[in-house]
Write a structure and sequence with these properties.
This protein has 3 helices and 17 strands. The chain is α+β, with helices and mostly antiparallel strands.
């Protein structure tokens, strides 16, 4: 009977891990907290909006790495701390100087401690602001030695940290044109090499293994959407444009 209970518990654990999600949250903050769906009123002029990219994993998400030979039975092989990201993001419908848009100084790697030379770069492409680059030097990471990793690993008495800010900064949303006052800005992935890597809980002879790998499955992107609230003047012009178009059709 005991063996049957253990078998059912193990199957339930595997099922839960199979359904676990991991990936990236693209978020804005206009002063009311972090969210993936925000709005901003530019009636009184341009407005600064904070943004961040968060790497996340559900509790119980497993590493794609196999447990090392001789791993202690307490090892869970669950991801417990973020390790490295290589890629770039984009803000669609944003970045034109004519609109008064700007990426403010101070973009950073969030919780991560090191990175490549192009990770904090920016450029404009096809009406979008690109942050980061497409080369291998566009990465951010952190190095955790076995002792530090133990603080996140359950087999060593630690607690997993499953949300890590890996890019943050502020943008200035302009209102210099009618188009700037009537738009939706999307914060999303531009390029990514692999899915990103995580440290996992793998105890060998009382010491945490520091190899990193991607979690099982594909990453989920939760895009950020920032809606610019139309100014009364821009709405009037849009309405006037529609009226003129209707008259032309009747003519």
């Amino acid at each position: 009977m005991k063996n049957a209970v253990l078998a059912v518990t193990a199957i339930a654990g595997i099922a839960a891990s199979a359904n676990a999600a991991w990936g990236y949250k693209y978020q804005f903050n206009t002063g009311s907290g972090w969210t993936n769906a925000a709005s901003v009123d530019v009636t009184g002029g341009s407005v600064n909006v904070s943004f961040r990219l968060v790497a996340f994993a559900d509790a119980g998400t497993l590493s794609s790495l196999a447990l090392p030979a001789g791993a202690d039975s307490a090892s869970t092989n669950q991801v417990v701390a973020f390790a490295r990201y290589t890629g770039s993001e984009k803000f669609t419908n944003f970045g034109a100087a004519a609109n008064g848009d700007m990426l403010n100084a101070g973009m950073n790697r969030g919780d991560l401690t090191s990175g490549g030379t192009t990770y904090l770069s920016s450029s404009l492409s096809g009406g979008s602001l690109i942050v980061g680059g497409t080369a291998a030097t566009s990465f951010a990471s952190q190095l955790l030695l076995a002792g530090a990793l133990a603080a996140y690993a359950p087999a060593s008495g630690g607690t997993p940290d499953l949300e890590w800010v890996i890019r943050s900064g502020t943008i200035k949303v302009g209102n210099s044109t009618i188009g700037a006052q009537n738009r939706v800005i999307t914060f999303t992935n531009n390029t990514r090499t692999g899915g990103g890597t995580w440290y996992r809980d793998a105890l060998v002879n009382g010491v945490q293994d520091v190899n990193t790998g991607a979690p099982v499955g594909n990453p989920v992107n939760i895009d950020g959407v920032l809606t610019v609230i139309p100014t009364p003047g821009s709405l009037a012009l849009v309405g006037l444009g529609g009226l003129v178009a209707a008259r032309r059709r009747r003519a």
